[in-house]
Amino acid sequence: MPRPSVEAERKAQILASTCKVIAAEGFRHLRVSDVAKDAGVSGGTVHYYFETKRELTDAAFEHCFQVSVTRRRWILESDEPPLSRLRMVVESYLPEGAETVEAWKVWAELWVEAIRNPELQELNERFYGEWRDIVASIFRDGQASGDITTSGDPLELANMMVSMLDGLALQVLAGSKAMTVDTMRVICLRFVDQLSTANVG
Considering Cα of 44, then 34, then 21, then 25, what sign does the dihedral take? Predict the structure, then answer.
């Protein structure tokens, strides 16, 4: 049996490849053989860590979420004012750059499949709930410090921002000529700017 450190590394490698294949081929067309090929391992090795395809895809969505949060941990732990942190959240989630675009495609596949799959609905509920709570905490900090003067429930404000990022990002990924990355940036940053009375007309 491989050492624990080797096992953890191999498992992460397989999950990263699973996300890559989901983004490229779609959730329904994912094959364990394609994951194994991308990871440079055998199909048997994949099944050693994940007995079923369902276990593999659930773990891949979890992996994608954790990687996304980890990549942005510096924003969440920053000493920058809350409004600045929200602007950094916007910039970090714009669908540009291979890694971020791949993650967006994985989430898009999860959302589409969750419409018909109760088990994936539960996964989406958990991941999305955690992400909304993280964004809401920034709004809460901003209201407490006076940096954000817009009144309202922080969770409700987080829902507004998260839904804006999600909806516009999907349009960018769909190749909309009316919604480019630059246009998305302007719209989302304008929303953030309007959270302070200094920018409210």
Answer: negative
The one-character DSSP state at 174 is T
**Terminal Cα distance for the chain, rounded:** 65
- Please give the pLDDT value at position 2: 56
User: What digits encode the pLDDT tens for the residues 39-80?
Assistant: 999 999 999 999 999 999 999 999 999 999 888 888 888 899
SS3 138: helix
Residue 74 neighbours by CB under 8 Å, 6+ apart: none
Which of 185, 192, 95 minimizes the C-alpha distance to 150? 192
d(CA 25, CA 30): 6
Interacting residues of 159 by C-beta distance below 8 A, sequence separation 6+:
132
DSSP state of 175: T
Instruction: Note whether 93 and 119 are within 8 A (CB).
Output: no
174-185 pLDDT, tens digit per residue, is 999 999 999 999
Cα–Cα distance for residue pair 78/18, rounded to 1 Å: 31
Handedness of CA 71, 73, 74, 80 (dihedral sign): positive
